Amino acid sequence: MFRGVLASGLLALRGLRLLRAPPLSVRQGSKRSCTVGVRSVDDGPKELSNFCLRSHTCGELRREHVGQRVMLCGWLQHRRCDRFVVLRDFHGQTQLIVPQDQLHGPGHELLHLQLESVICVCGEVRDRPPGQHNPNMPTGEVEVHISSVEVLNRSRKLPFQINEAVRVNESLRLQFRYLDLRSKQLQHALRLRSNLVMSMRTFLCSQGFVDVETPTLFKKTPGGAKEFVVPSREPGKFFSLPQSPQQFKQLLMVGGLDRYFQIARCYRDEGAKPDRQPEFTQVDIELSFTGQQAVQDLVEELLCHSWPCDLPPLAKPFCTLTYDQALNLYGTDKPDTRFGMQLVDVTGEVGNNRLTSEHASCRPRQSDCVRAICVPRGSELFCNEDFCTLKGLAKEHFNQEVIVMRLCGNDGETTSEWLSPGEQHALVEKCGAGPMDALLLAAGERSDVCLSLGKLRLECVQLLEKMGLSLRPCGLFQFLWVVDFPLFLPRKDNPTLLESAHHPFTAPHPDDAHLIYTQPQKARSQHYDLVLNGSEVGGGSVRIHNSQLQRHVLEKVLQEDTQQMSHLLEALDSGAPPHAGIALGLDRLVALLVGAHSIRDVIAFPKSFRGHDLMSNAPDWLSPEELAPYHINLCFPET
Amino acid sequence: MFRGVLASGLLALRGLRLLRAPPLSVRQGSKRSCTVGVRSVDDGPKELSNFCLRSHTCGELRREHVGQRVMLCGWLQHRRCDRFVVLRDFHGQTQLIVPQDQLHGPGHELLHLQLESVICVCGEVRDRPPGQHNPNMPTGEVEVHISSVEVLNRSRKLPFQINEAVRVNESLRLQFRYLDLRSKQLQHALRLRSNLVMSMRTFLCSQGFVDVETPTLFKKTPGGAKEFVVPSREPGKFFSLPQSPQQFKQLLMVGGLDRYFQIARCYRDEGAKPDRQPEFTQVDIELSFTGQQAVQDLVEELLCHSWPCDLPPLAKPFCTLTYDQALNLYGTDKPDTRFGMQLVDVTGEVGNNRLTSEHASCRPRQSDCVRAICVPRGSELFCNEDFCTLKGLAKEHFNQEVIVMRLCGNDGETTSEWLSPGEQHALVEKCGAGPMDALLLAAGERSDVCLSLGKLRLECVQLLEKMGLSLRPCGLFQFLWVVDFPLFLPRKDNPTLLESAHHPFTAPHPDDAHLIYTQPQKARSQHYDLVLNGSEVGGGSVRIHNSQLQRHVLEKVLQEDTQQMSHLLEALDSGAPPHAGIALGLDRLVALLVGAHSIRDVIAFPKSFRGHDLMSNAPDWLSPEELAPYHINLCFPET
Predict the structure, then answer these.
(1) Nearest CA in chain B to A49
(2) Hey, is the C-beta of A206 within 8 angstroms of any chain B C-beta?
(3) pLDDT surpassing 60 at residue A353
(4) How confident is the model at residue A38 (pLDDT cuts 50, 70, 90)?
(5) Which CATH class is domain A9-27+49-153?
(6) What is the pLDDT of residue A45?
(7) Where are the domains of chain A?
(8) What ipTM is given for this predicted complex?
(9) By the 8 A CB rule, do B605 and A248 touch?
(10) Which CATH number does A339-466 carry?
(11) Which helix (H) or strand (E) holds A632?
(12) How high does pLDDT run on average in chain A?
């Protein structure tokens, strides 16, 4: 019986209900699922075909199914030889074959249907004939001889093909996001993300953490410049969308929810910024009666527990660097430790005043430092233009001169004319440089020198990788803790004042607690960052739980108006336990895990890098009538 | 060694780090946790003391711990006899005893510390002396003889006591929410909520559902009047905070994420409304290749799986009523089926024109109906004032007259003077009324009659319960499906036009699909509501997956501008599978589970019923400078 192809969607809808009759009904699926008990997310195969029409997914059939009658639903992926159709869902692909005697019946229409149309077929699983097995396809040993087919929905001709080989430009993919979601990459990323989050939840719940939802309609944070505002119906009064649940998680600790987590939606209005999203997600954790090391231990266990099993397992404990060490060795507070090329302190070797007059502009002052990085095979692989680019970058970003020394030959001899052979030898030896390596040197104020060389280190590795050297092996995930950050930094708009390096609730390093009252600019904090392959993927701190200290920091050090924070200060005064926490940036973490270039590739419906939803065209105009309940008017900027 | 009481929080902070040394260090906790593998949320005891100072929680110690040295952290709950202190955390309470020889040492301060201060104690677990066991306290067989104590944070005198017996007024509790969170009720509600959600996730993941986060910064929905607006930095352009991820979940289906769920934050700007929150949470589910019955099966399994184990298990399948049946039998589309008192059709018994002239105003027209409810023992228990109140309610809400018939004596004789004895007998028999019951009758247009009596039915049960009758046993949870709703309703502002009864994406009932084009007002939908104990806790539908049908509904039936929905129409045209879904109201569900009067009692930081955050005072004023980036001005209403 070949039930035939139903044309209209409405008929298809009715057909769908007809299909619910035996032999492969929804009810049957439902019955099968009665055996499902409590099971963990990673625990064996999932019940993918309960509560729906299909008997199997398109990725499921194997030789053991031969002879079974099955019902498959999916998208028309491919057609060939006027007899074969490949049906796809997001678990795989199955080859269908139209029996010879049906080729001029309703099967004809199937063979002429627009690709990406949605169909439901019944048929029998058969062995493929000898020689026609497809070893590249998990279902490649079988095919389904169809006995009935129903078109559930016809597709128009699509603006681009669902084919990972054809990656059209990103705006088009964002405009038709529902089509791009059919790509293997996005399906993989979103499913991995879901599994990762579920594993994290499982671990956190096993440790007694309570999942608490906190509000997103809150009041503005003092100094929280990047918060979206939401007008209320009360004239002149606004909510703000907070950048994190920071205050709420601390208040939960005061309220005795002593182990909190939340996969929290956060908001940040930064206008257009590449690879930032106006809304993003963090794995937010806070616990009481704890300290920095314990939070780090917790996060390490959390990540090890939830790490995708097809990746090499993580090793604990993760490495830790202090902020100072990170800056000195890698020229950044988020070092990529997958490769070497560390900064080397050569102040002793080169001397404070031995840079020649050609390099007068970078002549170090007495108190300053000289640092070098050694680029392996740099002398051989980089051309003059490459070195010019590198020097230009340091000049542009940090106004920092950089000197290049190309090592030649087998004896590692340098090309420098301004260092004595002894000094050259000491320098090369200190840097561990070999023949055909290149040294990049910078001298001056430590921070500029380090940041410049840190940037050049990353540029060099990219250049070297373009030339075929593999310095950062694919699939290597190198976590790193960076600790002992400064607690305060000079304010950018007025360097005589201080601002929090992270946020004003960060506790001082216990060894520096006294400095808060005397030299706050010298105090280190109990903040910790988690870095993965050179990207910051998390940050947290021990919080201030003492109200006098918090008040001192807000009023005296930061000169904030504590009126706005009175609820938090009162809470700290009401039996607040010591507490600490962390937030992991989920989007970034998943992007690194799947090797995506942008967090847009791990978010189902991201905004464009200009902050627009290209699919629905948001943000959009509102009429004055729609704004009236909020007592706001538009005021267009003068042009 | 009695380490002594450290006064300042800063010293306490340093003390906290000192305490990390053995024998009870954080590291030790961390090591213990290495044995934790994949485990489900309900799987045995949780590791509550890893990654923190304490060795045990305050609810954990039993006789088997006698002789062990332990470290406990918690809040000073209670003190008595100048020697005993009760320490509380949110897992229980433990009695501490200050040894006799320490009563004048630093132990003195402990005994004079403000209640609710936070302390950390070390000590030895000992059997309580004979006769001093407390059977009402899980830890009541033991006490801890303390050897050292540290004050981690002092509390001020609090505005109210953390004691479930003292429930102060709600505004004060909302203002100091972080204190109210310490109450047993809120701790229980939030922890139950977390467990419930985790069990739901575990079940959904086991069925292959993918947790996908959808944006909350979206564009306005046509007709979506209750959406908060969020100004963007582009002059005149706004995001909206959607009331549900409806469009996104459908687009995910088009995108092949064929089984989606999300615990989704939703927004609804209704101004001040009792027991509504501007942000709320729904368990959002959508799947492809499915139908109404399958979604109902799925939800039943989901709820059975995640149902708290200390409640009686749920029975499957849940009962189902059509919308018409619900209205006819219970006078509402969300019947409380825990008790009877159903509406009885007595049109035949009383006759269309037999109400006497005293009741002329409710004389039914020929085509109308007469309905009755029988209030058990109403004649005995209700006074005239009660009946006046009931009649007044029907008049006030529905302009509906209601006639009361009080049955007397043992023979069920009525007091009516306007029905013949035969008619009275037939009426009493049809209603199953007994002696001393009361009948409430209404006649007129069916909808008003039913809604009136439906409201009175609920009023009566409350009145009866106040009088000591138990009609709705505590702990009884009665789920019910209501199906076959009308697809469209007359618009309230213009009854000649139609609006969607639920939303414009709802598919018509297959038997009524043809009516969409001819008599849309008569079409039923494939919408289904889930009702628990008379409250709507969920609603969903089979969606329209055919773009022509969707366009017809939007353009022709609802007369909407489809321009705003072009992305959805295009998506339906691009290979959209048939799909259906549901959203469960998590706040309401948890409130019913824990017997809370308001959803505010199951949300960590709710807004007041006027929509304010009384703790932080949100929404709040913003300065013109803060509004400037959004190109909006305030326009205050004229007074």
Answers:
(1) B207
(2) yes
(3) no
(4) very low
(5) mainly beta
(6) 60
(7) 9-27+49-153, 186-321+479-603, 339-466
(8) 0.91
(9) yes
(10) 3.30.1360.30
(11) strand A632-634
(12) 87
Rounded Cα distance between B356 and A201, Å, is 68
Token digits of residue A146: 């169809």
Q: How far is the C-alpha of A388 from the C-alpha of A111, rounded, in Å?
A: 60
Q: Do B208 and A607 touch (CB under 8 A)?
A: no
| d(C-alpha A428, C-alpha A413), whole Å | 9
CA angle (A550 as vertex; A544, A553 as ends), nearest 5 = 115
Query: What per-residue confidence (pLDDT) applies to B106?
Result: 66
Q: Which pLDDT score, from 0 to 100, does residue B413 have?
A: 60
Residues 141-170 of A with CB under 8 A from B: 152-153, 155-156, 158
Q: Does B545 contact chain A (CB < 8 Å)?
A: yes
Window 40-69 of A, Cβ < 8 Å to B: 40-43, 46-48, 50-54
pLDDT lower than 70: segments of chain B = 1-45, 106, 164-166, 224, 271-272, 351-367, 410-417, 639
- Any A CB within 8 A of B471 CB: no
Give start and end residues of each alpha helix (H) in A367-420. Answer: 378-381, 384-398
CATH architecture of A186-321+479-603: 2-Layer Sandwich (3.30)
Confidence of residue A364 (pLDDT cuts 50, 70, 90): very low
The residue written with tokens 């948890």 in the block is B590
- Spatial contact of B600 and A215, defined as CB atoms under 8 Å apart: no
Q: Is the pLDDT of residue A8 over 80?
A: no
Q: Tell me the pLDDT tens digit for each residue of A433-472.
A: 999 999 999 999 999 999 999 999 999 999 999 998 888 9
N- to C-terminal Cα distance for chain B? Answer: 71
- Token digits of residue B539: 């609603």
User: pLDDT per residue over A132-174, tens digit each?
Assistant: 999 999 999 999 999 999 999 999 999 998 876 667 889 999 9
In the block, tokens 């007495």 appear at A366
**Does any CB of chain B come closer than 8 Å to the CB of residue A315?**
no
Phi, psi of B534 (to 5 degrees): 85, 5
Which residue in B27, B8, B10, B182 sits closest to A253, CA to CA? Answer: B182
Please tell me if residue A610 touches chain B, with a CB cutoff of 8 Å: no
A299 contacts A584 by C-beta, under 8 angstroms: yes
Please give the Cα distance from B72 to B89 (Å, whole number).
9
Structure confidence at residue A48 (pLDDT): 92
In this prediction, residue B41 carries a pLDDT of 37
pLDDT of amino acid A93: 96
Q: What is the DSSP string of A532-584?
A: ETTEEEEEEEEBP--HHHHHHIIIIIS---GGGGHHHHHHHTBTPPPEEEEEE
Cα separation of B170 and B588, whole Å?
A: 19
What kind of fold does domain B186-322+479-603 have according to CATH? BirA Bifunctional Protein; domain 2 (3.30.930)
Domain B9-35+46-153 -> CATH class: mainly beta
